[in-house]
Amino acid sequence: MKDIVFCSNNCFVLYSAAVQAKNSENKESVPTLPQSPMKERPPKAFHQYSNNISTLDVHCLPQLQEKVSPPSSPPIMFPPAFEAAKVEAKPDELKVTVKLKPRLKAIHSSLEDCRPPSKKWKGMKWKKWSIQIVIPKGSFKPPCEEEIDEFLKKLGTTLKPDPVPKDYRKCCFCHEEGDGLTDGPARLLNLDLDLWVHLNCALWSTEVYETQAGALMNVELALRRGLQMKCVLCHKMGATSGCHRLRCTNIYHFTCAIKAQCMFFIDKTVLCPMHKPKGTHEQELSYFAVFRRVYVQRDEVRQIASIVQRGERDHTFRVGSLIFHTVGQLLPQQMQAFHSSKALFPVGYEASRLYWSMRYANRRCRYLCSIEEKDGLPLFVIKVLEQGHEDLVLTDKTPK
């Protein structure tokens, strides 16, 4: 018979039956439990707790029948992290030592600590895809913009805005279309009906000067002279920027003078490449942008008169919301009845105006105004043109 006794220092010791008998002799002084009238109990084994001081009887438990246990597994070998406690074993003792394995702590780097724990849903809720780009060997020509536009047009998946209409306005000096560069010919200014000039082309003409209010004077005079002058560089008419050196006949367009590397000065003088000083000059001007308010000074009354007197109406004359169509005419016998101290009433005059509607408070409509003759007197007619309604005609003998 063998018993298991739990000893100190985390080790198990097996004692034989002879040892138990020897220990029982030393326990005569310990009182035994009283006999109970119950049936005889099976023999008892004394379990002792031993330490370095003395042996004490701790519990007295009934001895169970021995069961056949499966063959014991070989002892588990742990790394020598902690040394087992040393117990002095007697010659007739069978000692089994169990060593505890310390729990190793995982050492993570600072980068791994910052990463959030990944969810283990791969294959169930998400998958990882890898993309491989294969570039064929040989010369690869990327498609041009025209091919891309045609391809997108075939697909019909994009909306392309309408192209910006081309500016066909042409400068009377340099004959270039549209507004020029800010640091070059600059924007176009209106000179007359369908006549345009670039700001710097007019400003750097010899006859032109600028007032404090920003008006360019003598532009028409420079234009007349330019119609007879040929540019030294491009050999075209309209050149008005000449060299200020005495007896020098070189004359250029403003854009041609920049291409020929002429020298421009702050006092609005120009020197051709033959007469310009070598190197840089303190008064040299290298930037031609004009952001201030500049306009061409002209006689507006004469300009309006020239517009009205034109027979062919290829252009629309508009002042604010008033659109001028025809001026009409007066015969000699109509002069006395078709005028007043402040105005003339020519027969056939016609103009239209966009003004507030008489039917709706927040809409506008078109009013067609004309002058007719009735019984030798002028008849003023206003026709109201409004969408969704019939034309309303109003007539009277006075314009009021």
From TrEMBL:
Coiled coil: none annotated. It is an enzyme of class 2 (transferase). Residues 24-43 are annotated as: Disordered. GO terms for molecular function: histone H3K4 monomethyltransferase activity; transcription coactivator activity; zinc ion binding. This is [histone H3]-lysine(4) N-methyltransferase. Residues 168-276 form the PHD-type domain. Keywords: Chromatin regulator, Metal-binding, Methyltransferase, Nucleus, Repeat, S-adenosyl-L-methionine, Transcription, Transcription regulation, Transferase, Zinc, Zinc-finger. PANTHER family: HISTONE-LYSINE N-METHYLTRANSFERASE 2C, HL01030P-RELATED. InterPro entries: EPHD, FYrich_N, Znf_RING/FYVE/PHD. It holds the Pfam family FYRN. GO terms for cellular component: MLL3/4 complex. Signal peptide: none annotated. Its EC number is 2.1.1.364. It catalyses: L-lysyl(4)-[histone H3] + S-adenosyl-L-methionine = N(6)-methyl-L-lysyl(4)-[histone H3] + S-adenosyl-L-homocysteine + H(+). GO terms for biological process: methylation; positive regulation of transcription by RNA polymerase II. It is found in: Nucleus.
